[in-house]
Design a protein that fits this description.
Largest sheet of chain B: 7 strands, mixed
Number of domains of chain B: 3
Shape of chain B: globular
Number of strands of chain B: 27
Distance between the termini of chain A: 26 Å
CATH superfamily of the largest domain in chain A: FAD/NAD(P)-binding domain
Number of strands of chain A: 22
Strand content of chain A: 15-25%
Helix content of chain B: 10-25%
Oligomer: heterodimer
Helix content of chain A: 25-40%
Distance between the termini of chain B: 52 Å
Largest interface: A-B, 42 and 40 residues
């Protein structure tokens, strides 16, 4: 299923989706559930490994989007859809609300404009609070906060389970997933397109470009060349779970033209996140952290939440946002060429993903793609890896039924052998330890492997067959000379 | 389930405490450990040098761990492995047993214990917690992970390795890497020289040809998918250079495994970052004790074991005394460049600390150093330390505790 070569002579797929991030998997899910045959293609060995895996893990309401923009519309629609989908699929999500905190008189003077913008974006439940109320809600906030705007609808969500749930549902509905298949060229044709990948050729009637950081490259292959992706790196610091009681909601800075700024947020795993920085970088894989970035984040963290500095850092990471020169999403459907471009999603793809998928599906239907028109099926139930609900190690009945759920392997994150076994045997098994991390939280804790890395590595190796060699010959054979 | 004493952690401190508790007449001593085997860190420290102070003999780490595990079981302690304390309800107001929740493959259980000893040990700060920037390739680990990979999982690690740190454990990591087939390039330390025994550094240099690069820090980790190497920076000149390698081991820089202590709401010592303890090793909560490297990260296994034995005597006395209120205990704080002192609560005229001494850590080297204890404007004691070396214990006698004034507030210990 994953990365398999196509049967020669089979009819082309209806749609090939390039990019298995949160947007590509959401589109694959939407189409597959409407009986559209689709192939989801990605260069990486797993879904959701680009911008989708390294972000601030916030389910935005879209309160600060540009009113009237496509982003604003799809964010509002998408976040409502995802809040519901997450609840049914067991994707960890917590409606913590956010406080947009003003630290200077200038920022305070901005708050009414932000409030007005939020209302124009259809986020009408926002309201301002003064310093006394702010201090009551967030007693550990640093000195000097002048007031805040409350955005009750902002939530935190698991960015890993979300694309995994979409992909799992897409696969169950008949979509095919082709991983480790970097797209090297596309032969656009009158009857069908041929997407040339590292593992062979994918024939399809439609191409959907959801390639994120590489969407300009794919667009060029389809004869577009309308935009250039400017990767913007965001570095983040994850603090230990012992820091979690220091805040109750997402603490946002007043946004500037360039970025939403440095925020402090709880995570659904019970940690505290500080970041991101915003720096334009040349490389599309420039995901290293920097001394300057981490130092500036720590300084910002000390100002916002002074007691953070006394807690241990669990992890640091960087992600790239797929920014374009345009302020809005770049979503275009070209019926003549049977091509849909879904690009410029920047930092709101997770929140808007279901809205984007719904919108793209409708555009494709208008352009002639036939949908089954059936109601949406129930989402799959994903393994729960959040901190707010009940995990397997806490569930006496589950341990009684299967003692493997009582055998904790990763002590920091309390991941059991049963959960690791399930992930390795699941419909979309991890290809490496990072994939296992995103499915179970294993190795993600404060000790970073001091206790469990050896055991987890051995478990992974014992249950995973050696990776099959890339089907290079089959792939090249399928390519027309 | 009920226990007279619940011991959390089956390392040297926990097992030694369990044996002593049984010897002193405690009936039901329950020892839990989240690991699948008893013995703690020595289990995967496959070199010799264990047991000199507590067992009066020298054993390998695994031999030492086995000996304690067998002896504690033979003494009648009930040792439950693969068992994690996942909840802490504590004692009801007005006194009574401490209630904790345990998770294991037997399910989720509650235990009521007359007293609890926390002996959860310590770990090394990983690369992330040290804020070392760069990429996140595999091949970057702590000594704990390295030793578990090599000695418990039997992995080989061929290739070039660099060790960050030059204290006792760093040389232990070097031996482990050599055993696993790695070529160790060097031990790097930001300090002006190594902080281990001269003999270890000489052996590293002569037998393994491994140098110590002083005043050197890791500026960046490089490699996508696999480790390419690290950028080193000279702290004196600011010069940087790239060193290609396949494995980097971050050693030392200990932090107590204090999560359970904090979940239990114990008062913490800002220096050790473990729970604050008095000279009987009782914490801020009556009936809850802490011993081993949770209260002094990190000392050798035998010192941890002797601390466990000492705590057992305090626990038995506490169980006999019942829930009487704790006497006046004055906090003792180490002033920089001293980092911490343990124990760190003093009861004027109270019992002696483990081994009759306080242990300190310094961040600087010093010779013939005067260590002074002050209370308010009054100097209570002066101790002379022949050599003060970072990462190594500095001892301070305990005779001054009788001179502390219960009314005169906190004490400080400083390097004169």
């Amino acid at each position: 299923m994953t990365g398999a070569a196509e049967t020669p002579g089979a009819p082309p797929a209806d749609v090939a989706i390039v990019g298995a991030g949160v947007v590509g998997t959401a589109i694959a899910r939407a189409l597959a559930c409407q009986d559209v045959s689709c192939v989801l293609i990605d260069a990486a060995n797993d879904v959701g490994t680009g911008t989708s895996k390294a972000n601030t893990a916030i389910l935005h309401t879209g309160f600060d989007a540009v009113p009237g923009s496509l982003e604003s519309r799809l964010l509002r629609r998408g976040s409502a859809l995802l809040a519901d989908y997450a609840r049914r699929a067991g994707i960890p999500v917590e409606r913590t609300g956010a406080l947009l905190v003003a630290w200077t008189p200038e920022q305070q003077a901005e708050l009414p404009a932000v409030e007005d913008k939020a209302r124009r974006n259809g986020v009408t439940d926002v309201y301002p609070i003064g310093p006394a109320e702010l201090c009551r809600r967030e007693p550990h906030l640093g000195p000097g906060a002048l007031g805040a705007l409350v955005i009750p609808g902002e939530s935190i969500i698991c960015p890993w389970t979300t694309p995994l749930a979409y992909a799992t549902q897409a696969l169950a509905a008949g979509a095919r997933l082709r991983l480790r298949s970097r797209v090297t060229g596309i032969r656009a044709g009158a009857a069908e397109h041929q997407v040339i990948t590292a593992t062979g050729v994918v024939r399809c009637r439609w191409v959907v470009n959801a390639a994120g950081l590489h969407s300009d490259t794919i667009d060029e292959m389809m004869g577009g060349g309308r935009f250039t992706i400017c990767p913007r790196r965001g570095e983040l610091i994850v603090f230990d779970k012992l820091a979690r009681p220091l805040l109750s909601s997402i603490l946002l800075p007043v946004p500037t033209a360039r970025t939403k700024g440095v925020l402090v947020a709880p995570t659904v795993y019970g940690n505290v996140l500080l970041g991101p920085t915003a720096e334009d970088v040349p490389g599309r894989d420039d995901v290293g952290t920097t001394a300057a970035g981490l130092t500036s984040l720590m300084a910002a963290g000390r100002r916002i939440l002074p007691r953070l500095a006394a807690e241990e850092v669990t992890a640091t990471y960087a992600g790239l946002r797929a920014a374009t020169a345009d302020r809005d999403y770049q979503i275009h459907v070209d019926p003549a060429r049977r091509y849909a471009c879904v690009a410029g999603i920047r930092s709101t793809g997770l929140s808007a993903s279901l809205g984007i998928a719904e919108y793209v599906t409708a555009l494709l239907a208008d352009a002639g793609l036939r949908l089954a028109g059936r109601p949406e099926p129930d989402p799959p139930v994903m393994p729960y890896i959040g901190q707010a609900g009940t995990r397997p190690y806490q569930d006496a009945a589950r341990i009684a039924a299967d003692p493997e759920y009582g055998r904790i392997v990763c002590h920091c994150e309390r991941v059991t052998r049963g959960e690791i076994r399930d992930a390795l045997a699941g419909p979309l098994p991890p290809a490496d330890l990072d994939g296992l991390r995103r499915r179970t939280r294993v190795l993600n804790g404060r000790c970073q492997g001091f206790y469990c890395a050896a055991t987890v590595t051995a478990l992974f190796a014992s249950t995973t067959p050696a990776p099959a060699p890339a089907p290079a010959t089959a792939g090249t054979a399928a390519e027309p000379a | 389930m009920n226990a007279d004493v619940l011991v959390v952690g089956a390392g040297p401190a926990g097992l030694a405490a369990a044996m002593e508790l049984r010897k002193l007449g405690a009936d039901r001593v329950l020892v839990v450990d989240r690991d699948v085997a008893a013995g703690g860190i020595p289990r995967h420290s496959a070199h010799t040098g264990f047991g000199a102070r507590d067992l009066r003999r020298v054993l390998t780490g695994p031999g030492y761990a086995r000996r304690y595990a067998e002896a504690a079981a033979a003494a009648g302690a009930d040792i439950r492995l693969g068992t994690t304390v996942t909840g802490w309800d504590g004692a009801p107001t007005g006194g009574g047993p401490q209630r904790v929740t345990l998770t294991s493959d037997a399910g989720v259980q509650s235990v009521d214990a007359g007293a609890v000893l926390l002996a959860t040990g310590c770990r090394e700060r990983p690369r992330t917690a040290r804020l070392v920037p760069g990429d996140r390739p595999p091949g970057v680990m702590t000594t704990g992970e390295l030793q578990r990979r090599v000695y418990l999982a039997g992995q080989r690690l061929p290739g070039r390795a660099l060790i960050v740190g030059a204290e006792h454990v760093s040389f232990s990591a070097m031996v482990t890497l050599a055993h696993a087939g790695a070529q160790v390039l060097a031990l790097v330390t930001g300090r002006p020289r190594h902080t281990s025994y001269a003999g270890f550094a000489l052996a590293a240099s002569w037998r393994w040809h491994v140098p110590v690069w002083p005043s050197t820090v890791v500026g960046q980790v490089t490699g996508r998918g696999r480790l390419d190497g690290v950028q080193l920076a000279d702290t004196r000149t600011g010069d940087t250079r790239f060193v290609p390698c396949d494995v980097v081991v971050f050693t030392g820089d200990w932090i107590p495994d204090h999560e359970l202590a904090r979940a239990a709401g114990l008062a913490m010592d800002p220096g050790t970052r473990g729970p604050a303890v008095d000279t009987t090793l009782e914490t801020s909560v009556p009936g809850v004790f802490a011993a081993g490297n949770l209260v002094h990260a990190a000392e050798t296994a035998d010192v941890a074991a002797l601390g466990g034995r000492h705590a057992a005597r305090g626990i038995v006395a506490r169980l006999r005394r019942g829930p009487a209120p704790q006497p006046v205990r004055l906090p003792v704080t180490a002033e920089p460049p001293l980092r911490w002192i343990a124990p760190n609560l003093v009861c004027p005229g109270g019992p002696a600390p483990p081994r009759g001494r306080f242990i300190l850590r310094s961040d600087v080297f010093a010779r013939l150093a005067r260590i002074e204890v002050w209370q308010g404007g009054r100097r209570l004691a002066t101790g002379i330390s022949f050599r003060v070396i970072p990462d190594r214990p500095v001892r301070l006698g305990a005779s001054w505790t009788g001179r502390a004034d219960p009314e005169a507030g906190p004490l400080t210990v400083r390097l004169a």
